[in-house]
Design a protein that fits this description.
The strands form two sheets. Strands 1-2-5-6 form a four-stranded antiparallel sheet. The chain has 161 residues and is an alpha+beta fold. It has three helices and six strands; from the N terminus they run ααββββββα. A hairpin with a 6-residue loop joins β3 (103-107) and β4 (114-118). The protein is extended.
């Protein structure tokens, strides 16, 4: 990268040392303008919050449990929840869902078709979640894993063990 040469030995007009053109950092210090500013993104191995750890433990434990009903009791998953009209909703299904996003598609500017961008293999990651299905005579409620974690935490705060 070219450097300013306004004076002897790469110094500026006042005798101050100048860095590479376009930089506002001292010479010899690596700096890319394409780096993100602000908080760094989550890094693998970094401490995770309790909710995330609990959600993972619920999903992995249920998947591995030979006796699913006993696991749900030990994990304190409620077998019933109050419905919106006062009815009792009963737990009937627990679903483990796995998905892989292999591409992205979005509307193109002034285009009649989607812009489709397949991911390289290194960017394809598994996303997994768990859904608790509660039903009554009048309705159904799907409780996502994150909501169930909140229900469990609220029960714990009320002293339900």
């Amino acid at each position: 990268m070219p450097t300013r040469d306004n004076g002897p030995n790469g110094t500026g007009p006042n005798g101050t040392e100048q860095g590479p053109l376009g930089h506002n950092h001292p010479p010899g210090q690596d700096h890319l303008h394409s780096h993100p500013h602000g908080e760094p993104p989550a890094v693998a191995g970094r401490a995770r919050d309790d909710d995330s750890l609990l959600a993972d433990a619920l999903m992995e434990g249920f998947d591995a449990a030979e006796d699913k009903a006993s696991f749900l009791r030990v994990a304190r998953i409620p077998s019933q929840l109050p419905g919106s009209n006062g009815e009792v909703l009963r737990l009937v299904d627990v679903e483990l869902r796995r998905a892989y996003q292999v591409a992205t598609a979005s509307p193109g500017f002034n285009a009649q078709d989607l812009v489709y961008l397949p991911f390289p293999a290194s960017l394809i990651r598994e996303r997994a979640t768990m859904v608790f299905v509660y039903v009554s005579l009048r309705g159904r409620r799907d409780v996502e894993l994150g909501e169930m974690v909140q229900i469990l935490k609220e029960g714990e705060e009320r002293g339900e063990r």
